[in-house]
Write a structure and sequence with these properties.
single chain, 218 residues, 0% strand
Length: 218
């Protein structure tokens, strides 16, 4: 696939945040180019509830106290979304957070239990995890642990901005084949959720067919 065809996988400007994602199959666009498509829909730090920032953003860490390994800044978190080929819907967030924490290789069973409790019972509104989200989070944490990638909370993401996604994934040590194999499983397990279908080429074809059928029916 040539460069022009590949960049057609990028979301168009003005895409609603619920529809925004850059699939894993995208390789030729740079990190900077992809982030530019996300900018109109990305949440600013001021929009994120305090409880979420306290748990997930390392700038709120208390010296000597480390509740959750793998915490990253909002800006780094956005780049990780791109590297993992995930959007912004609940199971996308669950996967990105889980994989990031798991990649630290320091996440304990107690940490995992504390985080899932907070995400299910303490997080407000759209940030709250469902039981299915928690399953995805745990699977992602395990996948991050077994991956040979560098700990994603230790990367200098500013150095990746002008690399293509393929080059950035290689620099970090992410294995697209490992992610794609898991995405097939998630897509089959949760076909009722858009974010789980669109992470595979077959799922995207099914979504497109459903959209066309709805248009014809309407």
């Amino acid at each position: 696939m040539d460069n022009q065809q590949q960049k057609s996988l990028l979301p168009v400007k003005g895409t609603h945040w619920k529809k925004w994602y850059v699939p894993l199959e995208e390789e030729n666009a740079t990190v900077r180019e992809c982030l530019a498509t996300q900018a109109p829909v990305a949440a600013g730090s001021a929009d994120i509830p305090l409880i979420v920032r306290l748990i997930e953003n390392p700038k709120f860490d208390i010296p000597g106290i480390n509740l959750f390994n793998g915490a990253v800044s909002l800006e780094d978190h956005d780049v990780i979304h791109l590297l993992l080929g995930r959007g912004m819907l609940p199971k996308d967030e669950a996967f990105v957070i889980g994989f990031t924490m798991g990649s630290s290789n320091r996440m304990t069973t107690a940490e995992k239990k504390m985080y899932t409790f907070a995400a299910k019972y303490l997080y407000p509104g759209p940030y709250k995890f469902s039981d299915e989200d928690i399953v995805v989070f745990k699977k992602a944490a395990h996948l991050g642990y077994v991956s040979d990638c560098q700990p994603l909370d230790k990367i200098n993401y500013s150095e990746l901005m002008d690399l293509t996604l393929k080059e950035a994934r290689e620099r970090v040590g992410l294995e697209p084949e490992l992610l794609a194999a898991y995405y097939q499983i998630e897509s089959q397990r949760y076909p009722q959720f858009e974010e789980c279908l669109r992470i595979t080429p077959q799922g995207r074809e099914l979504l497109a067919s459903q959209l066309n059928a709805d248009k014809l029916a309407g």
